[in-house]
DNA sequence: GCGATCAGCT
DNA sequence: CACAGCTGATCGC
């Protein structure tokens, strides 16, 4: 395949070191966007107010209707379709910003987020009215005086931002006040072996001030008992070793638009090498302030053999194409288990993409239990001999979720991720860690919505007994249930409103 | 014709 | 089977 052919086919945004034709559709779209980049408006300051004391028991001070109001007219998290009085963004990944309008901007109301997210938002949503942004620093609180759209009575909330350690600027939100005590984790990691996570735990416990969480909305992405992976710093060092073992290779690392910066920084420092990123990613790095002297990241391909490329660009075809020009290895740092489990470097290359190869493996495993525990002694391979997948995850693994549950001990817990590998309701695994699991045996396997409003939903029975839930679930069961749920979603299945507010007895 | 949303895919 | 994200098709104004 000649170079021109290579750049003409779909994954044409991986550059070569000779620098030819590196600017791609992605790069051009970045340039178009950056032209409309404007300076940030000075943000309105968030003031702290004394904690609003509320009776225990999950907001029992208010009538049933006010719980629905929290869904319909008070507060939304990672949901921006309007109709609420205050909006909260946990982090700037695309699947958490649906409803934010990139062109016409944001008009629905005050939008709370971290200062880092506020800094990045105008680059992703150029039309946003920054005067509506309400940055909350990690650990800080803000008080909200809202109104029940049903009763017209005032609602006081105190929200505290907790570092989520998922990607730069990611936050959890702890809500206390007239609607009870609710913790929305967003996507998070919880590596208690690291100082950052211990500090986040401290901040969380401090914010709780002895109060207990009525409803925990949990990142259940990897809520499956055998999904455990090492801390990120351990995996980062493994990636260093892999690159060092290929001194004459180009290296392609798949990353997203935000996240895994610490990995790239570690690689750069450990290997004493710059890292190529695409132009928008470079802007992001500079906005994050992690490479002010421009010593680490570059958009010049001639300066380095390590390139961070959009994750979707790292495929069998792109690697094969690159290897026709120069020896290249691919590295996929990802928590997705079927990428790094036991491929033994013998992937089926008949498929056009890594996905197809792994789908075959998943089907072969359907008869058995999923076993995803990571073995660091076995070099993980992605889909060819020259590619590697490592469990560098920005989401908490099962043991971390368990530790989190033990620290929080909520009255009840709900998963916030519907499109994930594990869509089993976290209550199936952590019900015993809930103080008052009022929905035992009555809950759907999966929450219908992805993220968003803060009103728990439930569906009448039909789920398993507690004993049945303890049985390890085969991947075929997971797959079938998933398909069913997806079809229901496609048909527009709805979950009815809760018959009574959580915690009201 | 345009933007928003959805479907499909990786 | 998809962490998050791209692309093209379709729909409604």
Report on this model:
This protein is of the alpha/beta class and 505 residues long. Helix content is 29%, strand content 14%. The protein has helices at 3-8, 25-34, 64-74, 115-124, 195-208, 232-244, 261-271, 279-288, 316-325, 337-340, 354-364, 398-408, 427-430, 466-470, 475-490; strands at 75-77, 86-88, 111-113, 133-135, 141-147, 154-163, 171-177, 182-184, 215-218, 250-255, 275-276, 297-298, 306-310, 328-333, 387-390, 412-415. Residues 1-13, 18-71, 341-374 and 439-505 have low confidence and may be disordered. The structure holds a DNA duplex (10 and 13 nucleotides).
* Radius of gyration from the alpha-carbon trace, in angstroms: 23 Å
Q: Please state the second-level CATH architecture of the domain at 70-225 and 399-433.
A: 4-Layer Sandwich
Low-confidence stretches: 1-13, 18-71, 341-374, 439-505
What sort of overall outline do the alpha carbons produce when their principal axes are compared?
Answer: globular
By DSSP, the count of extended strands is 16
How confident overall, as mean pLDDT?
70
Biggest β-sheet, characterized? 6 strands, mixed
């Amino acid at each position: 395949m000649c170079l021109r052919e290579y750049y003409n086919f779909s994954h044409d945004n991986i550059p070569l070191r000779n620098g030819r034709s590196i600017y791609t559709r992605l790069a051009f779209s970045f340039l178009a966007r950056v032209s409309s980049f404007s300076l940030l408006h000075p943000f309105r300051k968030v003031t702290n107010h004394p904690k609003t004391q509320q009776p225990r028991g999950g907001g029992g001070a208010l009538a049933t209707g006010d719980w629905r109001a929290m869904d319909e007219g008070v507060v939304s998290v990672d949901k921006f379709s309007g109709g609420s009085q205050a909006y909260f963004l946990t982090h700037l990944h695309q699947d958490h910003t649906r409803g934010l309008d990139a062109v016409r901007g944001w008009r629905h109301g005050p939008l709370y987020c971290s200062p880092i997210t506020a800094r990045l938002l105008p680059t992703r949503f150029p039309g946003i009215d920054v005067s509506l942004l309400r940055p909350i620093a990690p650990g800080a609180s803000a008080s909200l005086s809202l109104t029940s759209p049903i009763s017209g009575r005032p609602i006081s909330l105190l929200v505290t931002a907790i570092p989520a350690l998922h990607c730069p600027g990611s936050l959890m939100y702890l809500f206390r006040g007239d609607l009870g005590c609710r913790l929305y984790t967003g996507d998070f990691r919880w590596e208690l072996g690291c100082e950052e996570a211990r500090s986040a735990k401290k901040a969380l416990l401090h914010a709780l001030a002895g109060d207990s969480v009525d409803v925990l909305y949990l990142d259940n992405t990897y809520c499956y008992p055998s999904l455990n992976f090492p801390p990120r710093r351990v995996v980062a060092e493994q990636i260093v070793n892999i690159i060092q073992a290929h001194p004459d290779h180009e290296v392609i690392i798949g990353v997203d638009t935000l996240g895994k910066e610490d990995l790239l920084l570690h690689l750069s420092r450990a290997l004493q090498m710059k890292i190529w990123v695409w132009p928008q990613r470079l802007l992001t790095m500079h906005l994050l302030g992690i490479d002010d002297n421009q010593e680490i990241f570059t958009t010049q391909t001639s300066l380095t053999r390590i390139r961070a490329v959009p994750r979707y660009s790292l495929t069998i075809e792109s690697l094969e194409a690159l290897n026709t020009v120069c020896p290249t290895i691919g590295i996929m740092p990802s928590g997705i288990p079927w990428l790094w489990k036991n491929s033994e470097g013998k992937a089926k290359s008949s498929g056009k993409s890594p996905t197809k190869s792994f789908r075959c493996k998943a089907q072969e495993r359907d008869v058995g239990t999923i076993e995803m525990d990571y073995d660091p002694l076995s070099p993980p391979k992605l889909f060819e001999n020259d590619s590697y997948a490592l469990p560098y995850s920005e989401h908490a693994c099962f043991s971390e979720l368990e530790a989190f549950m033990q620290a929080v001990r909520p009255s009840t817990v709900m998963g916030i991720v519907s499109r994930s590998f594990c869509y089993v309701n976290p209550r199936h695994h952590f019900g015993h860690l809930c103080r008052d699991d009022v929905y035992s045996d009555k809950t759907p396997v999966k929450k219908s919505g992805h993220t968003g409003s803060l009103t728990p939903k439930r569906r009448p029975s039909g789920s398993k007994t507690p004993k049945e839930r303890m049985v390890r679930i085969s991947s075929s069961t997971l797959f079938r249930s998933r398909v069913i749920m997806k079809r229901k979603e496609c048909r527009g299945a709805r979950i009815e409103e809760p018959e009574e507010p959580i915690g009201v007895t």
